[in-house]
Design a protein that fits this description.
The complex is a heterodimer of chains A (about 350) and B (about 350).
Chain A lengths: L14 H5 L4 H24 L7 H9 L6 H34 L12 H16 L4 H24 L7 H25 L1 H10 L9 H20 L1 H7 L3 H6 L4 H23 L5 H13 L3 H26 L7 H19 L6
Helix pairs in contact in A: 2-4, 2-14, 3-4, 4-9, 4-12, 4-13, 4-14, 5-6, 5-7, 5-8, 6-7, 6-12, 7-8, 9-12, 10-14, 13-14, 14-15
Chain B lengths: L5 H9 L2 H36 L7 H8 L5 H36 L11 H16 L4 H22 L6 H25 L2 H12 L7 H21 L1 H6 L3 H6 L4 H23 L5 H13 L6 H21 L8 H19 L8
The chains are: A mainly alpha (about 350), B mainly alpha (about 350).
Chain lengths: ~350, ~350
């Protein structure tokens, strides 16, 4: 692992380069640039939407707020919360995906592997069909608790037997739990048309209509998850060498896994509660980050955290603009925009395997 | 689950290495054979039970007699026209899913790779949902559409993943991206349709063996007759491929050709099964790990994997039909619930570490 200072644009990285650490300056520069892009995209998300609002009005919203003015109301009660929700959800899912791939030592792992999406979905379906909850606001806590409970259960089941929660056992436990819960969810949906009618809109994943209070309620969980996750970089690097080597390096493997899993539970639970089950982001963004940074998790984590909300917000803006006066849910747009981009990346580069 | 007792260790100590290896190989082969035989017997038993139970119960001995052409007219009609096509479809689709999953998991050397991860079944589903919701079609036409969708998706993934050869890993990642796109197409169609139509589509998306006729069985039987022996035959190359490309090449193995043919076979199996029964979750994913545990070594177990797939499918369909009086659930609702305990048992008893399944 030599540190090579390459200042050329890494256009085609061969195997050697991908294994090598890029210089810190380049990586820090890239991260700053990505944060700048995120900032611009966030601004666009406030400026653009189904309703045309002049920039002047938007500035007035922040500096001379007038609660009688419809434009101000739209910006302050719809676009600002939506943008913040998008940033939070993106940050959470990008980070959780990277952590999950590191813990599961599996490039095909995604945050959903711990069963969070399936748990949230089942809880929401039960909330609709048994308790008659009917709004996105009402689903939040059900989704959060369902996601968290199932994720913890999956982790505990994965820890049974020898060796504790090894990557393979985690993957199997997650898949088993997901399949079982999905089956129950489907069974309820097949026998209950009214519930299915509401559920099919939640399950797409969307950022619309999220109130500021809700975003504020979920923010602490995500912030806690971010802090935890960013601390796991060094641990994940050790884990990626295999359990035995990690132990030999003096890492407490079980503790490292537990911390990482706790971060994933916090991040995914809150993100799913905010936006519904959004797939693809958590699985693919860490790969993009890995293309830029190489295999060092101390860099993969922050890059994933900044790149994911960029894609999510861009998708959300596009979804608002293409289907005026209606809108397309962000989950749908993201796959349509993100997938071709991801395929291009995968084709161009030699992928760093885990 | 190592069965080496202290006596065997004592034996091993007295033997030359050649003899030791030979003995180990023989033991292994014997175990594969016995596991396969037991699985086949259990499959046949569940098959007969599923033919005997229903609104009109036929005792199992009569079922067996009818199968061999010696039953009375009533049971002949009920079995041959109503229950047999369904049970045969379950066996064949289950085996096809199991084989397909086993091939993908071994090819990519990743227990998470299965045809429903990499977009093949999503291609079939998107195509079917467009047929159902977009054009108001139903029945056999939807299956044809699903088959076409699966093949088209596989072709696109293959073309996109081709870059001086095919790497299994790149194929899977591009497949995941395709799967995400297709899933969003499905979700979009589902949010735009009338709720009752969408629920019909949901039944298909769950995977169901209701109202399967001999026409379906014929097609899938022909396809299986071609694909399954091929899979087992070409699958021998998997063991070499598992060592990694360089090792395989140095052994004189044609890596690219063998990988391509395996991908084609696995895709075709998944496509046929999905077209016949819908995208039944979990069968493809779980068959190979269970088979490998039963066989008890880290080799390949393609035939056992196919049998496990068939067994999971049969048992799940049996539960789906009879467990809830008054409601016949699609088989896909049960596969997860039936498969999960097995998987958990795997987990608890597994003592291997590393990346295997």
């Amino acid at each position: 692992m030599s540190t090579a200072t390459t200042n050329r644009v890494p256009d085609r990285i061969d195997t050697h380069d991908a294994q090598r650490r890029r210089s810190r300056t380049v990586l820090i520069g890239g991260l700053v640039a990505a944060v700048a892009v995120l900032f611009v995209v966030a601004l666009l998300s406030v400026f653009l939407g189904t309703r045309s609002i002049s920039p002047g009005q938007i500035f007035d919203t922040f500096f001379q707020y007038d609660s009688e003015n419809t434009d101000h109301l739209v910006v302050w009660t719809l676009r600002v919360p939506r943008t913040l929700a998008g940033i939070l959800v993106g940050v959470a899912l990008g980070l959780a995906g990277a952590v999950m791939q590191g813990v599961a030592r599996n490039p095909l792992a995604d945050p959903g592997l711990l069963g969070v999406n399936a748990g949230a979905a089942l809880a929401v379906v039960c909330a609709i069909s048994v308790l008659g909850v009917g709004s996105a606001m009402g689903y939040v806590w059900f989704a959060f608790v369902g996601a968290a409970v199932v994720a913890v259960a999956v982790y505990l089941i994965g820890s049974l037997g020898r060796e504790g929660a090894t990557p393979v056992k985690l993957a199997l436990a997650g898949a088993a739990m997901t399949a079982a819960l999905q089956s129950i969810t489907t069974a309820i949906l097949l026998t209950d048309v009214a519930t299915f009618d509401k559920f099919r809109f939640w399950t797409v994943g969307s950022l619309s209509g999220r109130k500021l209070e809700l975003v504020a309620q979920m923010a602490p969980f995500i912030v806690a998850g971010v802090v935890l996750a960013l601390c796991t970089g060094r641990l994940l690097n050790a884990l990626s060498l295999g359990d035995d080597v990690a132990r030999g390096l003096g890492q407490r493997v079980a503790l490292a896994r537990g911390l990482s899993a706790a971060a994933v539970v916090l991040l995914c639970g809150a993100a799913t509660a905010l936006a519904g089950p959004i797939t693809f982001l958590g699985l693919t963004i860490p790969h993009v980050a890995r293309l830029i940074t190489g295999p060092d998790y101390r860099w993969i984590l922050p890059y994933s955290m900044v790149l994911a909300p960029i894609l999510l917000l861009v998708s959300d803006i596009v979804g608002r603009l293409v289907a005026k006066p209606g809108e397309l849910q962000v989950g749908i747009v993201m796959a349509i925009i993100g997938a071709p981009f991801f395929i291009l990346l995968v084709r161009r580069r030699k992928l760093a395997e885990l | 689950m190592s069965t080496t007792s202290e006596e065997t260790y004592a034996e091993i100590a007295d033997q030359s290495p050649v003899v030791t290896v030979r003995h180990a190989r023989q033991r292994r082969a014997a175990r594969v054979t016995s596991v396969t035989a037991v699985l086949a017997a259990v499959c046949f038993a569940v098959f007969c039970v599923s033919l005997s139970v229903g609104d009109y119960n036929i005792p199992v001995p009569d079922v067996v007699a009818t199968l061999f052409g010696g039953g009375d007219q009533a049971s002949e009609f009920i079995i041959n026209e109503l229950r047999l096509p369904r049970a045969l479809t379950a066996v064949l689709t289950g085996a096809a899913f199991g084989l397909s999953g086993a091939i993908f998991q071994t090819l990519v050397r990743n227990p998470l790779a299965s045809p429903d991860l990499i977009g093949i079944t999503q291609g079939a589903s998107a195509s079917a949902v467009i047929c159902i919701l977009g054009f108001g079609l139903s029945g056999f036409v939807v299956s044809v559409g699903a088959f076409a969708g699966a093949l088209a998706t596989a072709l696109v993934i293959y073309l996109l993943a081709w870059r001086d050869g095919i790497s299994g890993y790149r194929f899977v990642l591009i497949g995941i991206a395709m799967a995400a796109m297709l899933m969003s197409v499905i979700s979009y169609m589902m949010t735009r349709a009338e709720v009752y139509d969408a629920q019909q589509a949901l039944v298909w998306l769950t995977g169901s063996l209701n109202a399967k006729t001999w026409a379906t069985v014929k097609i899938i039987a022909w396809a299986s007759a071609v694909l399954m022996p091929l899979a087992v035959l070409v699958g021998r190359g998997l063991q070499v491929l598992q060592m990694g490309d360089d090792a395989a090449k140095s052994l004189g193995h044609r890596v690219e050709r063998s990988r391509l043919s395996l991908i084609v076979i696995a895709v075709a199996l998944a496509a046929v099964a999905t077209a016949a029964a819908g995208p039944v979750v979990f069968v493809a994913f779980v068959a190979a790990p269970i088979a490998r545990r039963l066989v008890g070594h880290n080799g390949l177990a393609l035939v056992p994997a196919a049998l496990v797939g068939a067994l999971v499918m049969l048992a799940s369909d049996f539960v789906a039909q009879h467990a809830f009086p008054g409601t016949q659930f699609p088989v896909g609702v049960v596969t997860g619930v039936v498969g999960a305990p097995y998987l958990l048992w795997l987990l608890v008893t597994t003592n291997r570490v590393g990346r295997g399944g």
